[in-house]
Write a structure and sequence with these properties.
By secondary structure, the chain is an alpha/beta fold. The protein is about 50% helix and about 10% strand. It binds adenosine-5'-diphosphate (ADP) and zinc ion (ZN). Keywords: ATP-binding, DNA damage, DNA recombination, DNA repair, DNA-binding, Helicase, Hydrolase, Isomerase, Metal-binding, Nucleotide-binding, Zinc.
């Protein structure tokens, strides 16, 4: 049982703030951390970007000794180690790239207990010498990242992952936390079995990535579409996935000649070039990387704004993980796939040389992919359904929701389909069911004697094709009338809702499948634009300056920019204008370590900006109004300095005089001195000015209503009083 400082339970939240700068745990993070700290095996299934890393990083930091983190890729480890070091945490990795000296340092820090996280690949774990030293060390727990690599049913099987259990047992009796972002119920079962942790505390959070916009475009004139899209997202980070190295090179080249900063990435490049191109992307020297799926696992760049699948992916799991790399920081993330059936056929050819099981599995995964593309149902409902999560409503934020496919009504058809599932004993997949319905005789149908069933050929009475029935069955599965069997994934069974439906049917609205063979028209394209999140509330100009500074600092420190500060933190800075270390530490995602390491130049920049632009900030609440308004203020101050008539200023900014007065008062109350004499002298004679001035001098309040009571009868307008109040405040108070 590991040693945990008893106070950690009360202070976890404080440590979260102090180290990582976050005010709150996200989702199940806190419960997960408690679970592993209490010594329970813990299994975490969360989508990319949900914040899995923190679930083992924080407990590792508060526990005595060192946590071992098993991770499949060197790039991934390096990334996390960089990020942790930026937070001021001692984390290191152990792999074959280390020199003797580096290796010794890792071992020394582990044995003396100063190292909090040791990242290691499963290959290195099996090495005798590493095992020996780990046995001597005080290990707090073991974290297994990307745990889906254990399962053959997943999309990224790594045989060496299956040895982990044995090795961990060899090191000692340690609690294990396994984490993954993709697991169908079947893969999940497989992982738990292999790690012998069926008893684990399971935390499965929703897979929904609310900020991602999913869309599929027909792969017609794809290059032109691609360039247009990337240009529309100029200056933003994006990944374009292609199937082959050749296409990767071709597309990278194509983008480059079209003035997009892009580089290729695939396993065929020499390691140096590969590393260079990856770093160029992380460091924002290029905006776009064109890559095979060799790229990305462990690329934790949080501000990727679009992920494009130029070719169709091989599985929905892969697709979900790849698209998951967009918008990890919770901000904008666009996921576009170019789809044509030709691509699917190409992929099928690749599977020819595989073993029978492998081929069947690959074919099944691909079939799910095709369905996803073709169905007119909300993409999010389809994706979540695939991962065993039922969604009651359409999401409203995918192409199928924004631009719905034509619909049709059904009722008797649904009853018939459900009856077919029942009559075939709930043991068959969609293809077989549609064969039975359309009386497509084949060896399976006859060998099960399904040609004798009551429902056999009944589908023909509706004059519908096999394609229609497949689509219908898939749609009613997504809508919860049928469900997939966990052990045998293609098999469909009735749910309670399906049972009820047969008893008491009602009309259902389904969507027609897509036809990807036609060229998108201009009108389609206009409708295609992903809805944007609306006007940003932050100071764009300051954000630009902060980003430029971040890039400079990152260059000096040889770190990716997001390791310094992430976009959401920068946006917050450009909203609340922190000008002290304390205020900076209040920003989400900025812990004390970061303030110390990187804070100063940013604080200085903001302070100067605030001063130059005369922005008001209060202690922790910001009074400052929106960006545009602050620009207007600056404009007004400049114009008054130039002695421009107030009427003219109002007109040039299309303001009512009333509104302009309010702006000027606001400027004045925030402490800026304004000299309006040039204007006031035009509209009031000196005696009247003196009268009002004296009034404000001895009045108990500068309230205008009160002043109006005093002067109202004497032909003074409210505007006169307000102008004089500004003059008074400027001369006396400011
Ligand atoms: P995952 O490993 O699940 O893909 P990460 O661990 O990379 O996700 O986290 C995704 C993003 O969420 C990162 O930018 C991280 O800094 C941020 N994050 C994690 N936990 C929190 C939290 N409690 N509050 C705010 N942001 C968080
Ligand atoms: Zn949707």
């Amino acid at each position: 049982m590991m040693q945990v400082d008893q106070t950690v339970y009360t202070t976890l939240k404080e440590r979260l703030k102090e180290i990582f700068g976050y005010n709150q745990f996200r989702g199940d993070q806190e419960a997960i951390i408690h679970s592993i700290l209490s010594g329970y095996n813990t299994f975490v299934i969360m989508p990319t970007g949900a914040g899995k890393s923190l679930c083992y990083q924080l407990p590792a930091i508060v526990s005595e000794g060192t946590a071992v983190v098993i991770s499949p890729l060197i790039a991934l480890m390096k990334n996390q180690v960089d990020q942790l070091n930026a937070f001021g945490i001692n984390a290191q990795f152990l792999n074959s790239t280390l020199s003797k000296t580096e290796m010794n340092r890792v071992k020394r820090d582990t044995l003396n207990g100063t190292l909090k996280l040791l990242y290691i690949a499963p290959e290195s774990l099996t090495k005798e010498e590493n095992l020996d030293f780990l046995k001597k060390a005080n290990i707090s727990f073991v974290a297994i990242d990307e745990a889906h690599c254990i399962s053959e049913w997943g999309h990224d099987f790594r045989p060496e992952y299956r040895k982990i259990r044995g090795i961990v047992d060899n090191i000692g009796n340690l609690p294990v936390i396994a984490l993954t972002a993709t697991a169908t119920p079947k893969v999940q079962q497989d992982i738990q079995k292999n790690l012998q942790m069926e008893d684990a505390h399971l935390y499965k959070t929703s897979f929904n990535r609310k900020n991602l916009y999913y869309e599929i475009k027909p792969k017609v004139d794809a290059k032109k579409q691609l360039i247009k899209y990337v240009k529309q997202h100029k200056g933003k980070s994006g990944i374009i996935y292609c199937l082959s190295r050749k296409t990767v090179e071709e597309i990278a080249e194509l983008l480059s000649v079209n003035d997009v900063k892009a580089l290729p990435y695939h396993a065929g490049l020499d390691p140096q070039t590969r590393m260079h191109n990856q770093d160029a992307f992380l460091n924002e020297d290029v905006d776009v990387v064109c890559a095979t799926i060799a790229f990305g696992m462990g690329i934790d760049k949080p501000d990727v704004r679009f992920v494009i699948h130029y070719d169709a992916p091989k599985s929905l799991e892969g697709y979900y993980q790849e698209t998951g790399r967009a918008g990890r920081d919770g901000l904008e993330g666009n996921c576009v796939m170019f789809y044509s059936y030709d691509d699917i056929q190409k992929l099928e050819k690749f599977n020819k040389d595989k073993s029978v099981t492998e081929r069947d599995n690959a074919k099944h995964l691909l079939g799910e992919m095709v369905s996803y593309a073709n169905l007119g149902v909300c993409r999010r409902r389809q994706l979540l359904g695939y991962f065993g999560e039922y969604m009651e409503k359409d999401c409203g934020f995918c192409d199928n929701c924004v631009k719905p496919a034509p619909t049709f009504k059904v009722q008797n058809e649904v009853v018939l389909a459900l009856q077919t599932v029942l009559q075939t004993d709930q043991r068959f997949d969609v293809t077989h069911l549609s064969d039975v319905l359309t009386a497509t005789s084949n060896q399976y149908v006859t060998s099960y004697e399904h040609n004798r069933l009551d429902v056999y050929g009944k589908g023909r009475e509706f004059n519908e094709t096999a394609e229609f029935w497949c689509s219908l069955i898939k749609q009613i599965t997504i809508y919860g009338y049928l469900e997939k069997d966990v052990d045998n994934y293609g098999i469909l069974k009735l749910t309670q809702r399906g049972m009820n439906y047969i008893e008491d049917p009602y009309p259902l609205t389904l969507h027609k499948n897509h036809d990807y063979d036609h060229l998108p028209t201009d009108e389609d394209e206009d409708k295609d634009a992903a809805p944007t999140s609306g006007g940003a509330a932050y100071d764009q100009e300051l954000l630009g300056l902060l980003k430029a500074l971040r890039k400079k600092v990152a260059k000096e420190k040889n770190l990716p920019p997001y390791v310094i500060f992430q976009d959401p933190s920068m946006e917050e800075m450009a909203t609340t204008y922190p000008t002290t270390r304390e205020e900076m530490a209040q920003i989400n995602g900025v812990g004390l370590g970061k303030v110390q390491k990187f804070g100063r130049p940013f604080i200085e920049l903001i302070a100067k900006y605030v001063e130059d632009n005369d922005i008001e900030t209060a202690k922790d609440v910001v009074i400052k109004s929106t960006v545009n308004k602050s620009k207007v203020k600056i404009y007004i101050i400049q114009q008054i300095d130039r002695k421009v008539d107030l009427d003219e200023i109002a007109e040039s900014k299309s303001l009512q005089m009333e509104d302009l007065m309010e702006e000027i008062e606001h400027i004045c109350y925030s402490g800026t001195r304004l000299n309006l004499d040039y204007y006031i002298n035009q509209v009031m004679d000196e005696d009247r000015q003196d009268e009002i001035f004296d009034y404000f001098m001895q009045a108990e309040t500068d309230n205008i209503a009160v002043a109006m009571e005093q002067f109202g009868g004497d032909d003074f307008t409210e505007q006169d009083l307000r102008l004089m109040r500004i003059k008074f405040l400027s001369e006396v108070a400011n």
